[in-house]
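Recap from last week: sequence in, structure out.
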Amino acid sequence: MINSVYIHIPFCQQLCHYCDFTKFFYNEAAANEYIEALANEINQNIPNEKTYVKTIYVGGGTPTALTVEQLRSLLNLIYKKFDIANCKEFTIEANPGDFDIDKIKLLKSYGVNRISLGVQVFDDKMLEELGRIHKVKDVYRTIDLLTQQHFSNISLDLIYALPNQTVNQFEKSLQEAMTFNLPHYSTYALQIEPKTIFYQRYKKGQLHRPPQEAEVEMYTILKDTMQANDVYQYEISNFAKQGYESQHNLTYWNNDYYYGFGAGAHGYLPGKRIGNIRPLPHYIKKALDNGMPVLTTEEIGLKEQIEEEFFLGLRKLEGVSKSSFEKKFGFTYNKLYGQTVSNLIQKGWLAEDQQYIKLTDEGILFGNDVFAQFLLENSDLELVY
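Predicted C-alpha coordinates:
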Protein backbone atom coordinates (compact mmCIF):
# COMPACT_ATOMS: atom_id res chain seq x y z
CA MET A 1 0.00 0.00 0.00
CA ILE A 2 1.23 3.52 -0.86
CA ASN A 3 0.86 5.54 2.34
CA SER A 4 1.67 9.08 1.24
CA VAL A 5 2.12 11.50 -1.62
CA TYR A 6 4.70 14.27 -1.99
CA ILE A 7 4.06 17.04 -4.56
CA HIS A 8 6.87 19.43 -5.43
CA ILE A 9 6.28 23.07 -6.38
CA PRO A 10 9.68 24.42 -7.46
CA PHE A 11 8.96 28.15 -7.62
CA CYS A 12 10.47 30.77 -5.30
CA GLN A 13 10.44 34.56 -5.23
CA GLN A 14 14.13 34.39 -4.29
CA LEU A 15 16.63 31.52 -4.22
CA CYS A 16 18.07 30.90 -0.76
CA HIS A 17 21.85 30.61 -0.53
CA TYR A 18 21.85 27.22 1.25
CA CYS A 19 19.06 25.36 -0.56
CA ASP A 20 19.81 22.51 -2.99
CA PHE A 21 16.22 21.48 -3.65
CA THR A 22 14.85 21.82 -7.18
CA LYS A 23 13.82 25.46 -7.46
CA PHE A 24 13.37 28.24 -10.02
CA PHE A 25 12.46 31.90 -9.93
CA TYR A 26 8.70 32.32 -10.03
CA ASN A 27 7.23 33.09 -13.44
CA GLU A 28 3.45 33.18 -13.86
CA ALA A 29 3.35 31.60 -17.33
CA ALA A 30 5.81 28.87 -16.37
CA ALA A 31 3.84 28.15 -13.19
CA ASN A 32 0.62 27.74 -15.16
CA GLU A 33 2.31 25.33 -17.56
CA TYR A 34 3.90 23.48 -14.65
CA ILE A 35 0.56 22.86 -12.93
CA GLU A 36 -0.80 21.46 -16.20
CA ALA A 37 2.21 19.16 -16.52
CA LEU A 38 1.89 18.10 -12.88
CA ALA A 39 -1.77 17.23 -13.43
CA ASN A 40 -0.82 15.06 -16.39
CA GLU A 41 1.83 13.23 -14.36
CA ILE A 42 -0.54 12.57 -11.45
CA ASN A 43 -3.39 11.46 -13.74
CA GLN A 44 -1.08 9.09 -15.60
CA ASN A 45 0.13 7.44 -12.41
CA ILE A 46 -3.12 7.53 -10.44
CA PRO A 47 -6.03 7.00 -12.81
CA ASN A 48 -8.69 6.63 -10.12
CA GLU A 49 -10.45 9.50 -8.41
CA LYS A 50 -10.45 9.94 -4.61
CA THR A 51 -7.49 7.62 -4.02
CA TYR A 52 -6.79 7.07 -0.33
CA VAL A 53 -3.45 8.10 1.12
CA LYS A 54 -2.67 8.72 4.77
CA THR A 55 -0.72 11.93 4.19
CA ILE A 56 -0.23 14.58 1.52
CA TYR A 57 2.71 16.98 1.57
CA VAL A 58 3.09 19.91 -0.84
CA GLY A 59 6.66 21.17 -0.65
CA GLY A 60 9.14 23.21 -2.61
CA GLY A 61 10.46 25.61 -3.51
CA THR A 62 7.69 27.70 -2.08
CA PRO A 63 4.16 26.48 -2.88
CA THR A 64 2.67 29.71 -1.53
CA ALA A 65 4.64 31.68 -4.15
CA LEU A 66 1.80 30.69 -6.50
CA THR A 67 -1.08 33.11 -7.07
CA VAL A 68 -4.46 32.44 -5.50
CA GLU A 69 -5.81 31.11 -8.79
CA GLN A 70 -2.80 28.86 -9.35
CA LEU A 71 -3.12 27.54 -5.80
CA ARG A 72 -6.80 26.91 -6.48
CA SER A 73 -5.94 24.88 -9.60
CA LEU A 74 -3.36 22.85 -7.68
CA LEU A 75 -5.66 22.21 -4.72
CA ASN A 76 -8.56 21.29 -7.01
CA LEU A 77 -6.34 18.70 -8.71
CA ILE A 78 -5.36 17.23 -5.34
CA TYR A 79 -8.97 17.27 -4.13
CA LYS A 80 -10.16 15.33 -7.21
CA LYS A 81 -7.42 12.70 -7.12
CA PHE A 82 -7.12 12.03 -3.38
CA ASP A 83 -9.57 11.26 -0.61
CA ILE A 84 -9.02 14.41 1.44
CA ALA A 85 -11.88 13.64 3.83
CA ASN A 86 -10.03 10.56 5.11
CA CYS A 87 -6.50 11.91 4.76
CA LYS A 88 -4.92 12.11 8.20
CA GLU A 89 -2.52 14.96 7.45
CA PHE A 90 -2.44 17.47 4.57
CA THR A 91 0.60 19.76 4.82
CA ILE A 92 1.73 22.69 2.72
CA GLU A 93 5.07 24.48 3.07
CA ALA A 94 5.05 28.26 3.24
CA ASN A 95 7.34 31.20 3.79
CA PRO A 96 6.41 33.96 6.23
CA GLY A 97 5.14 36.93 4.26
CA ASP A 98 3.83 34.84 1.33
CA PHE A 99 0.43 34.47 2.94
CA ASP A 100 -2.54 36.75 2.78
CA ILE A 101 -5.98 36.03 4.16
CA ASP A 102 -7.34 34.87 0.77
CA LYS A 103 -4.64 32.19 0.38
CA ILE A 104 -5.14 30.98 3.94
CA LYS A 105 -8.91 30.72 3.53
CA LEU A 106 -8.39 28.85 0.26
CA LEU A 107 -6.10 26.29 1.88
CA LYS A 108 -8.58 25.79 4.70
CA SER A 109 -11.47 25.27 2.28
CA TYR A 110 -9.60 22.45 0.50
CA GLY A 111 -8.78 20.54 3.67
CA VAL A 112 -5.17 21.58 4.31
CA ASN A 113 -4.74 20.99 8.05
CA ARG A 114 -1.02 21.54 8.64
CA ILE A 115 1.33 24.40 7.74
CA SER A 116 5.13 24.12 7.71
CA LEU A 117 6.71 27.59 7.99
CA GLY A 118 10.28 28.16 6.79
CA VAL A 119 11.38 30.69 9.40
CA GLN A 120 15.04 29.53 9.77
CA VAL A 121 16.25 32.21 12.23
CA PHE A 122 14.86 35.12 14.26
CA ASP A 123 17.42 37.67 13.14
CA ASP A 124 16.87 40.01 10.18
CA LYS A 125 20.56 40.33 9.36
CA MET A 126 21.07 36.55 9.29
CA LEU A 127 17.92 36.12 7.22
CA GLU A 128 19.36 38.49 4.64
CA GLU A 129 22.67 36.58 4.64
CA LEU A 130 20.73 33.34 4.02
CA GLY A 131 19.04 34.89 0.99
CA ARG A 132 15.64 34.98 2.67
CA ILE A 133 13.28 37.82 1.77
CA HIS A 134 11.07 37.76 4.86
CA LYS A 135 11.69 39.65 8.07
CA VAL A 136 11.10 38.56 11.65
CA LYS A 137 7.96 40.74 11.80
CA ASP A 138 6.49 38.67 8.93
CA VAL A 139 6.63 35.55 11.11
CA TYR A 140 4.45 37.21 13.73
CA ARG A 141 1.97 38.45 11.13
CA THR A 142 1.76 35.08 9.36
CA ILE A 143 1.23 33.02 12.51
CA ASP A 144 -1.40 35.53 13.65
CA LEU A 145 -3.28 35.19 10.34
CA LEU A 146 -3.09 31.38 10.50
CA THR A 147 -4.41 31.20 14.06
CA GLN A 148 -7.22 33.62 13.19
CA GLN A 149 -8.32 31.07 10.57
CA HIS A 150 -8.13 28.26 13.16
CA PHE A 151 -4.95 26.57 11.93
CA SER A 152 -3.61 24.89 15.05
CA ASN A 153 -1.14 22.40 13.52
CA ILE A 154 1.73 24.74 12.60
CA SER A 155 5.36 23.63 12.30
CA LEU A 156 8.28 26.04 12.37
CA ASP A 157 11.65 25.33 10.71
CA LEU A 158 14.89 26.58 12.24
CA ILE A 159 18.49 26.27 11.02
CA TYR A 160 21.44 26.53 13.40
CA ALA A 161 25.24 26.61 13.06
CA LEU A 162 24.79 29.42 10.54
CA PRO A 163 27.81 31.34 9.22
CA ASN A 164 29.35 33.36 12.08
CA GLN A 165 26.43 32.48 14.40
CA THR A 166 27.37 32.37 18.07
CA VAL A 167 25.84 30.07 20.66
CA ASN A 168 24.20 33.05 22.34
CA GLN A 169 22.67 34.22 19.06
CA PHE A 170 21.23 30.77 18.45
CA GLU A 171 19.83 30.57 21.98
CA LYS A 172 18.15 33.98 21.57
CA SER A 173 16.60 32.88 18.26
CA LEU A 174 15.40 29.61 19.77
CA GLN A 175 13.85 31.33 22.78
CA GLU A 176 11.92 33.66 20.47
CA ALA A 177 10.67 30.67 18.47
CA MET A 178 9.40 29.05 21.67
CA THR A 179 7.26 32.08 22.56
CA PHE A 180 4.78 31.01 19.86
CA ASN A 181 4.09 27.77 21.76
CA LEU A 182 3.68 25.86 18.49
CA PRO A 183 3.06 22.10 18.42
CA HIS A 184 5.97 21.21 16.11
CA TYR A 185 9.52 22.42 15.43
CA SER A 186 11.96 21.10 12.80
CA THR A 187 15.56 22.07 13.47
CA TYR A 188 18.59 21.42 11.27
CA ALA A 189 22.29 22.19 11.43
CA LEU A 190 23.34 24.02 8.29
CA GLN A 191 24.70 21.70 5.62
CA ILE A 192 26.89 23.09 2.85
CA GLU A 193 25.42 21.45 -0.24
CA PRO A 194 26.97 21.39 -3.74
CA LYS A 195 25.44 23.70 -6.37
CA THR A 196 24.49 26.34 -3.79
CA ILE A 197 25.74 29.88 -3.27
CA PHE A 198 27.05 28.90 0.15
CA TYR A 199 29.05 26.06 -1.39
CA GLN A 200 30.77 28.44 -3.80
CA ARG A 201 31.62 30.79 -0.93
CA TYR A 202 32.85 27.90 1.19
CA LYS A 203 35.20 26.72 -1.58
CA LYS A 204 36.65 30.23 -1.78
CA GLY A 205 37.16 30.41 1.99
CA GLN A 206 34.51 33.12 2.30
CA LEU A 207 32.04 31.18 4.46
CA HIS A 208 32.88 30.55 8.10
CA ARG A 209 30.77 28.12 10.09
CA PRO A 210 30.89 27.92 13.89
CA PRO A 211 33.38 25.35 15.28
CA GLN A 212 32.07 21.83 15.85
CA GLU A 213 32.01 22.22 19.63
CA ALA A 214 29.74 25.27 19.25
CA GLU A 215 27.41 23.28 16.99
CA VAL A 216 27.25 20.48 19.59
CA GLU A 217 26.49 23.06 22.30
CA MET A 218 23.69 24.52 20.16
CA TYR A 219 22.19 21.06 19.73
CA THR A 220 22.36 20.44 23.47
CA ILE A 221 20.64 23.77 24.17
CA LEU A 222 18.04 22.90 21.56
CA LYS A 223 17.16 19.58 23.19
CA ASP A 224 17.10 21.03 26.71
CA THR A 225 14.94 23.98 25.65
CA MET A 226 12.42 21.78 23.88
CA GLN A 227 12.17 19.46 26.86
CA ALA A 228 11.66 22.41 29.22
CA ASN A 229 8.75 23.54 27.04
CA ASP A 230 7.10 20.08 26.91
CA VAL A 231 7.99 19.61 23.25
CA TYR A 232 9.54 16.16 22.99
CA GLN A 233 12.13 14.94 20.52
CA TYR A 234 10.81 12.13 18.33
CA GLU A 235 13.43 12.25 15.55
CA ILE A 236 16.99 13.54 15.34
CA SER A 237 15.88 16.93 13.98
CA ASN A 238 12.20 17.06 14.95
CA PHE A 239 10.30 17.95 18.11
CA ALA A 240 6.57 17.89 18.78
CA LYS A 241 3.91 18.08 21.41
CA GLN A 242 2.14 14.77 21.95
CA GLY A 243 -0.06 13.95 18.95
CA TYR A 244 1.53 16.49 16.60
CA GLU A 245 4.37 14.39 15.17
CA SER A 246 4.69 14.80 11.39
CA GLN A 247 2.84 11.79 10.02
CA HIS A 248 4.20 12.41 6.53
CA ASN A 249 7.83 12.40 7.63
CA LEU A 250 7.18 9.28 9.68
CA THR A 251 6.32 7.61 6.36
CA TYR A 252 9.94 8.18 5.31
CA TRP A 253 11.48 7.12 8.62
CA ASN A 254 9.27 4.01 8.82
CA ASN A 255 10.54 3.05 5.37
CA ASP A 256 7.01 2.98 3.95
CA TYR A 257 5.98 3.62 0.34
CA TYR A 258 5.06 7.03 -1.09
CA TYR A 259 4.41 8.72 -4.42
CA GLY A 260 6.58 11.65 -5.54
CA PHE A 261 5.29 14.07 -8.19
CA GLY A 262 6.83 17.17 -9.74
CA ALA A 263 10.24 18.35 -10.96
CA GLY A 264 13.03 16.66 -8.99
CA ALA A 265 10.59 14.76 -6.77
CA HIS A 266 11.40 11.27 -5.50
CA GLY A 267 9.03 8.40 -4.85
CA TYR A 268 9.41 5.01 -3.21
CA LEU A 269 7.25 2.27 -4.67
CA PRO A 270 7.43 -1.50 -4.12
CA GLY A 271 10.84 -2.62 -5.38
CA LYS A 272 12.07 0.74 -6.68
CA ARG A 273 12.91 4.35 -5.97
CA ILE A 274 12.08 6.85 -8.68
CA GLY A 275 13.67 10.26 -9.27
CA ASN A 276 12.08 12.80 -11.59
CA ILE A 277 13.74 15.12 -14.09
CA ARG A 278 14.92 18.33 -12.37
CA PRO A 279 15.26 21.05 -15.08
CA LEU A 280 11.91 22.78 -15.40
CA PRO A 281 11.55 22.90 -19.24
CA HIS A 282 12.51 19.22 -19.57
CA TYR A 283 10.17 18.15 -16.77
CA ILE A 284 7.26 20.09 -18.28
CA LYS A 285 7.84 18.70 -21.78
CA LYS A 286 8.11 15.09 -20.62
CA ALA A 287 5.18 15.33 -18.23
CA LEU A 288 2.96 16.87 -20.89
CA ASP A 289 4.08 14.34 -23.51
CA ASN A 290 3.39 11.14 -21.60
CA GLY A 291 2.99 11.88 -17.88
CA MET A 292 6.20 9.95 -17.05
CA PRO A 293 9.00 12.50 -16.41
CA VAL A 294 11.28 9.93 -14.76
CA LEU A 295 15.04 10.48 -14.76
CA THR A 296 16.22 7.54 -12.62
CA THR A 297 14.79 4.26 -11.40
CA GLU A 298 16.74 2.45 -8.70
CA GLU A 299 15.88 -1.16 -8.00
CA ILE A 300 15.49 -1.78 -4.27
CA GLY A 301 16.19 -5.38 -3.36
CA LEU A 302 16.06 -7.13 -0.03
CA LYS A 303 19.56 -5.97 0.95
CA GLU A 304 18.70 -2.30 0.41
CA GLN A 305 15.35 -2.63 2.20
CA ILE A 306 17.01 -4.10 5.29
CA GLU A 307 19.76 -1.46 5.35
CA GLU A 308 17.25 1.35 4.99
CA GLU A 309 15.10 -0.10 7.75
CA PHE A 310 17.98 0.68 10.11
CA PHE A 311 19.30 3.87 8.46
CA LEU A 312 15.86 5.47 8.58
CA GLY A 313 14.44 3.83 11.69
CA LEU A 314 17.37 4.88 13.86
CA ARG A 315 16.59 8.52 13.08
CA LYS A 316 13.51 8.13 15.28
CA LEU A 317 14.15 8.53 18.98
CA GLU A 318 12.11 5.40 19.69
CA GLY A 319 14.37 3.56 17.25
CA VAL A 320 13.88 0.44 15.15
CA SER A 321 11.02 -1.80 16.20
CA LYS A 322 12.17 -5.40 16.57
CA SER A 323 8.70 -6.80 15.96
CA SER A 324 8.16 -4.62 12.85
CA PHE A 325 11.52 -5.74 11.47
CA GLU A 326 10.62 -9.40 11.95
CA LYS A 327 7.16 -8.91 10.47
CA LYS A 328 8.58 -7.22 7.36
CA PHE A 329 11.48 -9.59 6.69
CA GLY A 330 10.53 -12.90 8.29
CA PHE A 331 13.52 -13.18 10.63
CA THR A 332 14.88 -11.37 13.68
CA TYR A 333 17.44 -8.60 13.35
CA ASN A 334 19.89 -10.75 15.36
CA LYS A 335 20.61 -12.98 12.39
CA LEU A 336 22.28 -10.12 10.54
CA TYR A 337 23.01 -7.45 13.09
CA GLY A 338 23.34 -9.14 16.48
CA GLN A 339 27.09 -8.56 16.78
CA THR A 340 26.88 -5.08 15.22
CA VAL A 341 24.28 -3.97 17.75
CA SER A 342 26.25 -5.51 20.63
CA ASN A 343 29.43 -3.67 19.57
CA LEU A 344 27.63 -0.33 19.27
CA ILE A 345 25.98 -0.80 22.67
CA GLN A 346 29.41 -1.38 24.21
CA LYS A 347 30.63 1.78 22.50
CA GLY A 348 27.75 3.74 24.06
CA TRP A 349 26.14 4.66 20.76
CA LEU A 350 23.12 2.31 20.84
CA ALA A 351 20.70 1.18 23.52
CA GLU A 352 18.32 -1.78 23.44
CA ASP A 353 15.18 -2.81 25.30
CA GLN A 354 12.61 -5.53 24.66
CA GLN A 355 10.91 -3.63 21.84
CA TYR A 356 13.40 -1.23 20.23
CA ILE A 357 17.01 -0.58 19.23
CA LYS A 358 17.80 3.13 19.39
CA LEU A 359 20.54 5.74 19.36
CA THR A 360 21.84 7.08 22.64
CA ASP A 361 22.43 10.81 23.12
CA GLU A 362 26.07 10.25 22.19
CA GLY A 363 25.06 8.03 19.28
CA ILE A 364 22.98 10.85 17.81
CA LEU A 365 26.13 12.98 17.56
CA PHE A 366 27.83 10.18 15.59
CA GLY A 367 24.77 9.10 13.63
CA ASN A 368 26.48 8.69 10.26
CA ASP A 369 29.17 6.50 11.80
CA VAL A 370 26.47 4.35 13.39
CA PHE A 371 24.48 4.01 10.17
CA ALA A 372 27.58 2.89 8.26
CA GLN A 373 27.80 -0.16 10.52
CA PHE A 374 24.53 -1.48 9.07
CA LEU A 375 25.75 -1.75 5.48
CA LEU A 376 25.50 -5.35 4.27
CA GLU A 377 27.34 -7.51 1.79
CA ASN A 378 25.19 -9.63 -0.52
CA SER A 379 26.75 -12.72 1.05
CA ASP A 380 25.33 -11.69 4.43
CA LEU A 381 21.83 -12.51 3.23
CA GLU A 382 22.85 -16.09 2.64
CA LEU A 383 23.09 -16.43 6.43
CA VAL A 384 19.34 -16.04 6.83
CA TYR A 385 18.04 -17.86 3.75
